[in-house]
Amino acid sequence: LAVAQAAGARGGDCLSVCFASAGVVKALSVAAFMLSWTHSVEKIEWQEDWVVTSQGLEIVAARVKGSGAGTFQNEWNRYRPAEFQVMDAHSLYIETLGEMGIVGMALLMTALLAIALGLIWRLRGPGRPAAAAVLAVFGTWALHAGVDWDWELTSVSVWMFGVAGIALASPVPEAARRPMPRLLRLVAALGVLVLA
After folding, report:
1. d(CA 53, CA 6)
2. In contact, 139 and 151? CB cutoff 8 Å
3. Which of 14, 22, 124, 192 is the most buried (most CB within 10 A)?
4. Residue 40: is it exposed, middle or buried by C-beta count within 10 angstroms (0-12/13-18/19+)?
5. Which of 74, 80, 63 is nearest to 99 (CA)?
6. pTM for the full model?
7. Exposed/middle/buried for residue 46 (C-beta within 10 Å: 0-12, 13-18, 19+)
8. What is the structure's pLDDT at 10?
């Protein structure tokens, strides 16, 4: 299989794909194409649309599809490697990716990172010990949510978000306020831009 870029017959760019098999050569000329595949582990369908430009290949659109909220059990029953019932993935992150796709995972990570960064920001103020304790609890919860399903239980998760909310809602004294570092502002802005 040989791939070469060549000028199209109509003056536009195209991709010339040559197949050599048993001494016979076939050439296909395309200006755009779509790649589609199913991920081997998560069984999620991925699709990408590409066009050929004078600068090379450019991606036009990408679609990653999850199965929908609350459907992990259906996906397990369809692709299960063993004959036992499973209702939830043993990971918040794998279940979110499988059910909601990349968009759901990006939204989840944005929410969790916003809490973590807010708590880290509070470490510079006078309430440092309390912020550190809440940050430690939050980090432990986030790590545990990646390896077990009990993050879905009210008694495991709701109180953690309540305590984090209280810690983030407390006012910061004027003396402890400093402008956000430029790098952190840039990362936050890029994160918002990517999600938009």
Report:
1. 10
2. no
3. 14
4. exposed
5. 74
6. 0.55
7. middle
8. 42
**Residue type at position 167:** A
Residue with tokens 């979110």: 96
- Residue 97, Cβ neighbours under 10 Å: how many? 20
DSSP structural state of residue 171: P
- DSSP notation for 10-63: TSSEEEEEEEEETTEEEEEEESEEEEEEE-TTT--EEEEEEEEETTEEEEEEEE
Write the pLDDT tens digit of every residue in 57-98. 787 776 666 666 777 777 777 777 777 777 777 888 888 887
Structure tokens at 101: 């796709």
* Neighbouring-strand partners of residue 2: 18
Q: How far apart are the C-alpha atoms of 65 and 20, rounded to whole Å?
A: 35
Cα separation, 61 vs 48, in Å, equals 6
User: Are 111 and 81 contacting, i.e. CB atoms less than 8 angstroms apart?
Assistant: no
